[in-house]
Design a protein that fits this description.
Elements lengths: L1 H14 L2 H11 L2 E7 L4 E7 L7 E6 L6 E2 L3 E2 L9 H8 L3 E5 L25 H17 L4 E7 L1 H9 L6 E7 L5 H8 L21 E7 L7 H9 L4 E6 L8 H12 L1
Parallel strand pairs: 3-6, 3-7, 7-8, 8-9, 9-10
Antiparallel strand pairs: 1-2, 2-6, 4-5
Helix pairs in contact: 3-8
């Protein structure tokens, strides 16, 4: 009987959507979700049940997830298959939320969504403006003295593009981030994301905003030189290259020490 129950559990898990699996991981780690709307899109926010106001708030932005299935077909649900961002947030002792991108976390079939928003338009002005709008709206209702944006992979690109639009922002942190979309596309031989904004082409962030950029020494998805070159051109920016880190492996094992550098 126990064997049958176990097999049934495995079957149900395998049939779950990426969003369902991500949401279950969030619940298992003690997070709840809520939805908030901009003028254009719906967004999901994950947060701790006992989130407190005041002080510093860390805002996590996830990567591009899985825009394409087997690099051939546009994914029906782009939500990340690997919930690394949740494991990072779970270790963070600061008050923290995860701000979802448009069309992710079960929203890919909502009215305004189109697959272009997780493929060619993944860093577009529409995406950046919507994320900035909902975050500022949320921050008006939940008061914090200081805000830190923490973006992983493509979320790091969005963090840079959003930075000058966010109230009370003090610091932007990126991990394995795609900070030069053009060079990244050329490096991999991908078609250019012509409808996306490129952080490397944007105006430098104000020197009043601290930047910390982490790169994985053996990252073959976003090679470290892309991140290093971006960081070198910015004001008030620090660059750290971590040995043994690729694009997904082991960031959570070092995250507590990395948080000390951020704080």
């Amino acid at each position: 009987m126990k064997t049958l129950i176990f097999i049934f559990f495995i079957f149900i898990t395998a049939c779950a959507t990426p969003t369902q699996r991500f949401h279950q991981q969030a619940e298992d780690l003690g997070f709840i979700s809520e939805q908030i709307n901009s003028a254009t899109f719906q967004h999901t926010i994950y947060l701790a049940k006992n989130l407190l106001e005041g002080g510093i708030l860390h805002i996590y932005l996830d990567g591009d997830g899985t825009p394409w299935e087997r690099n051939r077909w546009i994914a029906d649900d782009p939500t990340a298959r690997n919930p690394l961002i949740l494991r990072l947030m779970q270790q963070d002792k600061a008050q923290s939320i995860l701000l979802g991108r448009p069309c992710y976390y079960g929203l890919s079939h909502t009215l305004a969504c189109d697959s272009k928003y997780w493929t060619s338009h993944r860093y577009s002005k529409e995406v950046v403006d919507s994320m900035s709008q909902v975050l500022n709206s949320w921050l008006l209702q939940h008061k914090y003295n200081e805000v830190v944006l923490i973006g992983y992979s493509g979320g790091g690109a969005l963090a840079i593009l959003m930075a000058d639009k966010i109230k009370n922002l003090s610091t932007v942190v990126t991990l394995a981030a795609n900070l030069d979309v053009t060079k990244w596309s050329e490096f991999h031989g991908y078609s250019a994301l012509k409808q996306s904004l490129n952080p490397a082409d944007a105006e430098k962030l104000s020197g009043s905003i601290k930047q910390i950029h982490f790169a994985g020494q053996v990252d073959e998805v976003v090679p470290s030189f892309i991140i290093q070159e971006f960081s070198a051109k910015q004001e008030n920016a620090e660059y750290f290259e971590l040995s043994g880190k690729d694009h997904t492996c082991c960031w959570d094992e070092s995250w507590e020490g990395m948080l000390e550098l951020i704080q």
